[in-house]
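Obj.: predict assembly geometry.
Materials: sequence records (below).
Method: joint structure prediction, all chains together.
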Amino acid sequence: MSVRRIIPCLDVKDGRVVKGVQFVELRDAGDPVEQAAAYDAAGADELCFLDITASHERRDTMYDVIARTAEQVFMPLTVGGGVRSVDDVRRLLLAGADKVAINTSAVEDPSLITQAAGRFGSQAIVVAVDARHTRVGADVGWEVYIHGGRTATGLDAVGWAARVAKAGAGELLVTSMDRDGTRAGYDLGLTRAIADRVDIPVIASGGVGTLEHLREGLVDGHADAVLAASIFHFGTFSIRDAKIYLQEMGVPVRPPPGMP
Amino acid sequence: MIAIVDAGLGNLRSVAKALEATGTLQPVRVTSDPQVVRDADRVVVPGQGAFGDCASALGPEAPLGRAISDGIQGGKPYLGICLGLQVLFESSEESPGHPGLGIYRGHVRRLPSGTRDENDRRIKVPHIGWSRVAVRGTHPVLDVPTADNWFYFVHSFHAQPADESLIAAVSAFGSLPVTAAVARDNVVAVQYHPEKSQAAGLELLRQFVAWRC
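Observations (raw structure tokens):
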């Protein structure tokens, strides 16, 4: 069976990395292709680009970034942000993405998941679930948010996850909005509730500050993969550090390059 | 010339770029033209997506399918990736009623869902991620240095050949052994994605482009 995956994520705006790695050997810290190549060399298991370009007109820059990345980097690539239609999915896949993450549009029109999965296969369709902790009476749960976390939907995150899995999603990217940016660790309750409910793989996201948080997400959160941004960006830890730590803690991972 | 068969699905660009990155001097052409497939020295059939769509484009009745079958029968080196492995068999549970090329007897089955591992965790389908691949015996294309023998898988179905001696490599899905590669004579086909498997994948492709079978 596959081992757990470590997925660094780069935020890309107008074709430039805005929150990225600070590898000293990079000539240009803002070039997503160069950063992707650095993560590839470091033995990342996959790579995620999140397009946070605000204006629709400038989105074409992302296709160029993906195409240039796919020419040099031979690892799985997920792209998310602003995906609105089956045609958007098709263009991203043709440019060289392997998986496309859909969030707001999936809530607005869940049939988009089924259409895209039917055309390109479930394995190409990731549904991103942004969720926030909520309490209704005695019931504790998580609510789905869209539009980059600005709009509450009233949807229960666990129920929504089960629904999109049934609709044809191949994977879920579950982000805790409460934890995002806090470095306090993943919301393990959220991650585990969803991972235990669905048969498709779950990627945990939001809140990583230490290597131990990665282990918690994979072991206690039951996630199949962990996504992290800032711990790698600021050079606090390398992919290699993460792999070695997890190996030592008995979590099955692919060893870093040059290690047995 | 190396023909990459375009059946209208999948991420062909990555396969083409990865083959070029091997440094081969053979031109790499993405094509849906049966004549180009007939003229090619080597044929690569990649593919993600649905078996039915693949079988419609490449099945035994389609001109492209016949060009591929003739090449295989004629001894031309063939590399199948993912659906390019599955389509060699007779049928798939994914798309009943769409026959595959039927080069080999056997069927493509869905990975079981709802199973659990020894820690009582759900084993997820699609099977997505990196697995070690165990090659049975030796193979000039499939063998890569042991430390690098990790490949990236993305699939919900796996081939079950009637003739088990076709199975050239296996990996594990929970306690279930899955067909990671099949090989016979001039045919080699892998369930995993060498074009997405970093150094190990490029090494496999390098061995394919140099293969004298």
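Conclusions so far: Chain A touches chain B through 46 residues (CB under 8 Å).
To do: check interface contacts against the pulldown list.
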